[in-house]
């Protein structure tokens, strides 16, 4: 249940959500638009989001341009293959135009969600400096100076809560905030936890009913997650490795969060983390007998090696359940599907393999 209707979304949530290409931000925006909750921001956080947008676009453009140059210079032979032609026709990306588009989406979010701004000037700078000197959260060794914006925001929020005799949810997945204790601030580590609290608050009986359906059909849900996980990881294009012959050994679901409740259409969406253990065949590049040509900037005589591995990861899934609250006392058909599942990155798979090889 909600302890307060006041919500503050940290920069990290926007960055981790790939900004506005994320359903949970849209869901929070809708609750703000309806004034179900009160969403707050500071100019510092807004500026940080804009700064991250620009940096991420710059880095993405740099990587794409590097790819275009590599394929244009060293992959010319692929022009003869029909399916590769689109790679040679990638359009030039304009930094300012793309930044403006995302910046406008931020302004649109602020407007539609009815975001209110808390003055960061409320912060107690003396307290912030003492936190810095004592290396108290959010300050940490090595990167202390980069935490000043966060410390100023937290101080301003805490004093705003004191001034208004209220509390505020501070939503951030930043591990530096995990155990922080600040008067007035209630730390939540993800948007899905917040959405679960909102949905449970305003449709309590309905949320308990749909959660019971989730629990009753857990075996079906595990099956759907496994199927989608396998399809997704096999479809993923990885550069150095190729995965095949997946065999899921076990799966454990963590507490689900009800992130969206549509009583009229009978659509309910849960998000949850899950542990998965699976074995698979992995084919990797073998550089044992390869040679590097500095002039061509490439390796020659790269071989292949294949082995079977057992891997263990924690991932995220979104489950859709179609059921009707009005028919809760009747024997109705329950439709369950997995809308989305995350998979480990190539880097994480390779790291996992290396770790197991030395332990």
Strand fraction equals 25-35%
Radius of gyration: 24 Å
Poorly predicted ranges: none
Overall mean confidence score, pLDDT: 87
The helicity comes to 40-55%
Characterize the main sheet.
5 strands, parallel
Backbone structural class: alpha/beta
CATH 2nd-level architecture of the largest domain: 3-Layer(aba) Sandwich
Secondary-structure element sequence? EHHEHHHEHHEEHHHEEEEEEEH
Query: CATH superfamily assignment of the largest domain?
Result: 5'-nuclease
Q: What order do the strands of the largest sheet run in, or round the barrel if closed? A: 3-2-1-4-5
- Individual helix count: 11
Shape: globular
Q: How many beta strands in the DSSP annotation?
A: 12
Topology (elements, then pairings):
Elements: E1 6-9, H1 11-16, H2 23-33, E2 38-41, H3 43-74, H4 85-88, H5 95-112, E3 116-117, H6 125-134, H7 148-164, E4 168-171, E5 185-188, H8 191-202, H9 204-216, H10 218-235, E6 241-253, E7 257-262, E8 267-286, E9 291-293, E10 298-300, E11 303-322, E12 335-341, H11 346-357
Parallel strand pairs: 1-2, 1-4, 2-3, 4-5
Antiparallel strand pairs: 6-8, 7-8, 8-11, 9-10, 11-12
Protein name: DUF4935 domain-containing protein
Domain DUF4935: 7-177
């Amino acid at each position: 249940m909600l302890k307060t209707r006041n919500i503050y979304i940290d920069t990290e949530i926007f960055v981790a959500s790939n900004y506005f290409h994320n359903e949970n931000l849209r869901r929070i925006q809708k609750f703000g638009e309806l004034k179900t909750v009160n969403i707050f921001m500071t100019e510092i956080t807004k500026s940080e989001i804009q700064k991250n947008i620009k940096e991420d676009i710059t880095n993405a453009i740099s990587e794409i341009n590097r790819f275009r140059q590599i394929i244009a210079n060293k992959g010319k032979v692929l022009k003869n293959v029909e399916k590769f032609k689109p790679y040679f026709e990638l359009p030039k990306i304009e930094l300012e135009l793309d930044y403006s588009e995302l910046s406008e989406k931020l302004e649109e979010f602020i407007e539609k969600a009815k975001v209110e701004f808390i003055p960061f000037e409320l912060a107690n700078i003396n307290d912030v400096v003492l936190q810095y000197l004592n290396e108290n959260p959010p300050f940490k060794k090595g990167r202390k100076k980069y935490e000043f914006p966060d410390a100023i925001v937290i101080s301003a929020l805490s004093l705003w809560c004191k001034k208004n005799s209220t509390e505020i949810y501070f939503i951030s997945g930043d591990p530096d905030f995990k155990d922080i204790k600040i008067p007035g601030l209630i730390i939540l580590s993800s948007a899905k936890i917040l959405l679960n609290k909102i949905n449970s608050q305003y449709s309590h009986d309905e949320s308990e009913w749909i959660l019971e359906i989730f629990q009753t059909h857990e075996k079906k849900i595990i099956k759907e997650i496994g199927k989608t996980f396998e399809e997704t990881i096999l479809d993923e294009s990885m550069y150095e490795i190729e995965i095949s012959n997946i065999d899921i050994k076990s799966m454990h679901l963590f507490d689900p969060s009800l992130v969206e409740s549509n009583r009229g259409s009978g659509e309910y969406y849960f998000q949850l983390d899950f542990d998965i253990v699976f074995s698979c065949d992995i084919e990797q590049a073998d550089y044992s007998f390869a040679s590097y040509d500095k002039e061509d900037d490439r390796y020659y005589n790269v071989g292949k090696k294949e082995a079977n591995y057992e891997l263990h990861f924690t991932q995220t899934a979104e489950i859709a359940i179609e059921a009707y609250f009005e028919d809760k006392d009747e024997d109705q058909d329950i439709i369950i599907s997995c809308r989305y599942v995350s998979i480990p990155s190539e880097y994480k798979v390779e790291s996992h393999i290396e770790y197991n090889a030395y332990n």
